[in-house]
Amino acid sequence: MADPRRALGALGERLAVEHLLRAGYRIVERNYRTRHGELDIVAAGDRCLVFCEVKTRVRGGGPSPFDAINGAKRLKVRAMAAQWLAERRPHVDVPAQPDLRFDAIGVTMSASGRLLSLDHLEGAF
Predict the structure, then answer these.
(1) Banded pLDDT at 40 (limits 50, 70, 90)
(2) 59-71 pLDDT tens trace
(3) Contact criterion met (CB below 8 Å) for 43 and 26
(4) Which of these, 76, 78, 116, 107, lies nearest to 7 by C-alpha position?
(5) Which residues 6+ apart lie within 8 Å of 120 measured at CB?
(6) Stated pTM of the model
(7) Tell me, which fold does domain 4-121 have in CATH?
């Protein structure tokens, strides 16, 4: 992966997946492509299906990873989730009537590549 931004994003998503697995979620899908963009992570809990947006930043006094999840991004994630539900849900093992939730995971890395923080906001939008 030659693009440093893509590599940073992939690292953040991998760390987010590891966090979700430790928290007891099952990863249903990653990087689901739609005409609206890419849905980062779909995870399932006991009665909850979670659509998770992951943002990764290098610390440098700039904005928080969550600052990138504005109103337009939230609408896109919801549109991608609706497409996923219509196309994929019948083909995967998820609870019959799950609660749906939209989470955000912000990952902050140091310039040297060390994890500084991982913040998981359940029901972020």
Answers:
(1) very high
(2) 876 788 999 899 9
(3) yes
(4) 107
(5) 16, 19, 20, 23, 103, 104, 105
(6) 0.89
(7) Trna Endonuclease; Chain: A, domain 1 (3.40.1350)
